[in-house]
Amino acid sequence: MAILSINDLTKNYGRIRALDKVSFSVPPKTVFGILGPNGSGKTTLLGIIMDVTKASGGTYTWAGEQMAANDFRKKIGTLLETPNFYHYLSGEKNLRIAAKIKGRGEGDIEKVLRIVNLYERKDSKFQTYSLGMKQRLAIAAALLGDPDILVFDEPTNGLDPAGIAEIRELIKQLYKQGKTIIMASHILDEVEKVCTHVAIIQKGVLKTVSSVAELMNAGSANAGADVLIDISAADNAALKSIIEQLAGVASVTAVDGELHLVCTENITGEMVNRFCFEKGIVLNKLSVKRKSLETRFLEITGRQSDK
Amino acid sequence: MTDLLKIEWLKIKNYTAFKVMTIFFVVGVFALNYIIYTVNKNIVNNVPGAGLVSFSPYNFENTWQSTSYATGFILLLPSLLLLMLFTNEYTFKTHRQNIIDGLSRQQFIGVKVVMAFIFALVATLLVVITALIFGLASGTTFSLHGIVFVGYFFLKAVSYNLIAILFSVLVKRTGFAIGIFFIYLGSENIVSQLLNVLSMKMKRDSGTDLGNIGDYLPMNAADALLEFPDNPIKSMSKAIMPSDYTWLVFALALAYLVIFYIWSRRKFISVDL
Predict the structure, then answer these.
(1) Whole-angstrom distance, CA of residue B146 vs CA of residue B229
(2) What CA–CA distances, in Å, run from A303 to A47, A296, B101, B123?
């Protein structure tokens, strides 16, 4: 039974179509990433399922929604886009309001403030917080009441590298505890590191949806070509003409003074190195990558950024 | 609803503007009435002959009406506070957050409307206390004559507060909303005055008496129900004035309340937040 099912969700802003008949469902106990470039409709989508944005068409259903939609939202921890709090109230008082709305006791407040390392600043007014602290307070609010479902929109936005690592670790822990996490991000690395499932959206259109493992394995444009190797030598032109003769090299492109090879699964770095050396070329760079989410993402969305 | 009100209380109890405006309003109500009380007393005591046509606004005969009327002048304070509290939610985007956290849109706008009534009720209570104090100070015997004006005051307070909510929902930005609120009040007053002059002309020229047409406008309907008690000067001008259709103005004021409410609610429930 899916935690969330979305059917043909459409949203128009005037003549702009921000979402175009998007459908997918989120399986329970997954980290479900919604991935897309800036302006692709991720936030609009999350806004609709949280009832702050009205859909122009289509429906969504939360798991077993026998209760009123707003009562169901009380059981979801959410962080949408920017942290929204009363500027003139302290962090703790802001959480009290959130706890009251969610119908939770105040017992949780200290715990969540400690999780996000804000306990020492709990009595400072929200307006005195740095961007990172604001974001952490928002995450604290989302954790109130230990919800089973969490919805995060760009959760590491505005955090420093240590903060980013902490939040990713937190998300992994939540996943291990059996929670379902729906997370929008434009940071591929983030999705690759923490998500189990991914939906890719571009210009409001759902491009693909699957588990991350499946997505990595199923290359559409060059099926079977799963190893990426970057090489360079003193004379790249000569290198190019030689390496093209190696069986298993599907394509060679020169980029920024190095050659990017797309190879079949059986090619290893050692084979490339030996082949070149035997042909009289010494490599000064050799780096082997598995096909990353980034390459899959670029294959799916194209290399141009959305304008 | 109790829980919703508790949430609102958490929002406002540490809000500086709330404390400041509450003090201004409470002090303002007493001060304003005290000034009128003292000025009138001085005239009666010191101007020769004034005692003959004397009229005391704070005798128990008049105190309910006078206090309600005078306090009406600073009724903008609570409605401005309400407008600030509501537009703050838009500024901080907490209207979104509250919904995300689990309020329904109906609950969010509903509790604001209830707050409008509570603010009006508190202001009315203040009027009752003030009227009582000055009535007792005037040394006359207790009477409830003219108590209906306290009811009109309540109606006017609710009107101001609900229109503040409507402007909040429509305009969203605090400064902008306050500006437009004042511009609207000002222009409606001017239009109302013009219409009233027209009514007077119509009565004089053709004998058609439709009452004061200007009083039928949204804010003026609530205002018009509250008048200063009849006094010698006012009775002199009565002859040329069109009739007071109190019942009509009252009905219109009520109708406008319903319109403000439905309009705000519908707007808040149907749009992207």
Answers:
(1) 9
(2) 28, 11, 38, 64
What CATH architecture applies to the domain A4-217?
3-Layer(aba) Sandwich (3.40)
Q: Smallest Cα–Cα separation from B233: which of B81, B40, B41? A: B40
Nearest CA to CA, how far is B183 from chain A (Å)?
28
Cα torsion angle, A75, A53, A95, A131, sign: positive
Cα angle, residue B109 at apex, residues B105 and B113 outer, rounded to 5°:
160
Q: Where are the domains of chain B?
A: 2-270
Give mean pLDDT in consecutive 10-residue pieces for chain A, a chain of 307 residues.
Answer: 89 90 92 88 91 91 76 89 89 94 88 90 92 89 91 85 86 90 86 87 89 70 63 87 85 85 80 88 83 72 61
CB A257 within 8 A of CB A232: yes
The residue among A38, A43, A18, A33 whose CA lies nearest residue A301 is A38
A68 close to B (CB below 8 A): yes
CATH class, A227-290 region: alpha beta
Kindly list the residues from chain B whose CB atom is less than 8 angstroms away from the CB atom of residue A50. Answer: 99-100
Full-model pTM: 0.83
Whole-angstrom distance, CA of residue A139 vs CA of residue A162? 15
Helix (H) or strand (E) holding B118: helix B105-137
B92 near A CB under 8 A: yes
Residue B93 in contact with partner chain A when CB distance is under 8 A: yes
ipTM of the complex: 0.84
Q: Locate the domains of chain A by residue range.
A: 4-217, 227-290
